[in-house]
Amino acid sequence: MIAPGNDLKIYVATRPVDFRRGMDGLALAVQEMLGLDPFCGAAFVFRAKRADRIKILVWDRTGLVLVHKRLEGSKFVWPQVRDGVMRISPAMFAALFEGLDWRLVRPERARRPQLAG
Fold first, then answer.
1. Is 35 left (phi over 0), alpha (psi -120 to 50) or beta?
2. 63-85: per-residue pLDDT in tens?
3. Which residues pair with 23 in a beta bridge?
4. pTM here?
5. Strands 85-88, 10-13: parallel, antiparallel or unpaired by DSSP?
6. How far apart are CA 24 and CA 43, in angstroms?
7. What single string gives the DSSP state of each residue in the chain?
């Protein structure tokens, strides 16, 4: 299971991909379609044409990890379909993975302390 920490970068491909692709095909899509490095340690989220399926690709420093999930009886909330990639926070990713509306997640801004002590 991917446990997203606050430092994990998460990218969502906004255009659906062919879900017959496996790890190597999705890694190639990260390079060619998104212009990113699939071995940088970030999580790359892909959707199928059917909004009820999700694939996540991550390099964990020992190999590629591919997670595939299909929601039963509902659909994932996805950004508008267009070319490109968008970055989301770990909290938004957790909501997306659970099938919740990730757009409603608003992380609190941490205020920088004025004085120490």
1. left
2. 999 999 999 989 998 877 777 89
3. none
4. 0.84
5. antiparallel
6. 15
7. -----TT--EEEESS---TT--HHHHHHHHHHTS---TTSS-EEEEE-SSTTEEEEEEE-SSSEEEEEEE-SSS----PPP-SSEEEE-HHHHHHHHTTS-GGG--PPPPPPPSS--
